[in-house]
Design brief:
By secondary structure, the chain is mainly α. Helix 5 (91-106) runs antiparallel to helix 6 (111-130) and helix 11 runs antiparallel to helix 12. The protein has helices at residues 10-23, 31-47, 51-68, 71-87, 91-106, 111-130, 134-151, 154-170, 174-184, 191-207, 211-228, 231-248, 251-268, 271-287, 291-388.
């Protein structure tokens, strides 16, 4: 069976993931199918797409793993489910999956399970950070970082440090955040990690009004985004560069960057990115005094914003419907099982009743037979007495 590493750049990883999933059709309901699901889902995460597909596949992988008593598969699927639920905004569900994973890892501690538990701590930290609980988030990130030191794991060191830096920045301590970002940078081994951290360093310098450094790191991030070949990374790095030029009031360069972003975003058909594009255009045209254009893009932004909200609401409704159908199925199964149990109970009662009636009938028959015999003896004696007279 083919195996892949998601350290490949996203596009190549996705291609290999698809090959792997096609090949897994020959290994349905086996550990090989679970491994294929894991690798394919990781490639989808790397490309930032199809989180609903990840959720469906991960649930399938989890069920197969449970049926096979495949511990590695169960733990891997819980991790993927935690990530996918957090991506679609189901934070409580995500935390439940992560906590279940941590408990499973504690019951079977190896380097792999310790690493997976650290990733789960990191996942919970990201959720807390998104909820504005930055100090609480940092506690989880620190747990992840301490494990990274113990295992000497560069990936974990990078993710935990970068996340601590983001938490500091979001809580208003941008200078401390920058310091942490710079510490994280040497641990960035994968090309996607380098792209992300360069963008964050540029962002920190921009907020600290160190515009030259902000531009240098933003340009580095764009260059790496081109190497990766992933639209998501290109768009993200160009967004950072646009903000740099916007703040520097380099209007021509800012517009050039927007024009570079536009076809990538429209090709991705990502509603959130489309919304951010129209917002950037509206801000740009307002800044240069073209209020007619600014108003046009503001209207486009409002429509895109409503579309994102509708999509989020629809997703929430779909999840509730799925949960409702699942609960309804459970109730039906329970009712069916209860009916079966009642039927069994009724059958037992019927059998006991039949047995009891049988015993009563036998008893009555015995009693009547004995009584008849007794009457015959009495009659015989009465006849004998009459004859004697």
């Amino acid at each position: 069976m083919i195996t892949i590493s998601t350290r490949f750049h996203p596009k190549r990883s996705l291609e290999y993931g698809r090959v792997l999933m096609n090949e897994s059709k020959n290994y349905l309901n086996t550990k090989n199918e679970v491994r294929a699901i894991k690798e394919y889902c990781e490639s989808l995460f790397l490309n930032g797409t199809k989180f609903d597909s990840i959720n469906i596949l991960s649930n399938r992988g989890l069920q197969i793993s449970k049926d096979l008593d495949y511990g590695f598969g169960v733990r891997s699927m819980y991790y993927l489910l935690g990530r996918s639920e957090s991506k679609v905004g189901s934070m409580d569900e995500a935390v439940k999956y992560y906590l279940t994973l941590i408990d499973l890892c504690k019951s079977n501690e190896t380097n792999k399970t310790i690493e997976l538990a650290a990733k789960a701590y990191h996942g919970i930290g990201l959720i807390k950070d998104n909820q504005g609980k930055h100090e609480e988030a940092k506690k989880y990130f620190t747990k992840c970082f301490n494990t990274a030191i113990t295992l000497d794991n560069s990936d974990l060191k990078f993710f935990s440090l970068q996340s601590i830096g983001i938490a500091d920045a979001l809580s208003g301590n941008m200078r401390k955040g920058l310091s942490i970002f710079l510490k994280a940078y040497p641990h960035a081994k994968a090309i996607t990690q380098k792209s992300d951290i360069l963008g964050n360093i540029s962002l920190a310098y921009r907020f600290l009004s160190v515009s030259d450094s902000a531009e240098i790191y933003a340009l580095k991030a764009v260059a790496i985004g081109e190497q990766i070949g992933s639209p998501r990374h290109k768009v993200a790095s160009l967004a950072s560069l646009f903000e740099v030029y916007f703040n520097q009031q380099k209007w021509n360069k800012a517009l050039t960057v927007l024009k570079q972003r536009e076809p990538l975003i429209l090709e991705m058909k990502n509603k959130k990115w489309i919304r951010s594009l129209y917002e950037a255009y509206a801000d740009y045209y307002e800044a240069i005094g073209n209020y007619k254009k600014a108003f046009e893009y503001q209207q486009k932004y409002i429509i895109a914003h409503d579309s994102v909200l509708n999509e989020s609401n629809q997703l929430a409704i779909n999840k509730l419907e799925i949960k409702y159908e699942s609960e309804k199925s459970k109730v039906k199964i329970l009712a069916h099982e209860t009916t079966i149990e009642k039927q069994k109970s009724n059958n037992v009662l019927l059998w006991l009743s039949s047995l009891l009636l049988g015993l009563v009938a036998v008893s009555i028959y015995g009693f009547m037979k004995s009584r008849n015999k007794h009457f015959k003896l009495i009659s015989k004696k009465e006849a004998q007495l009459k004859n004697k007279k």
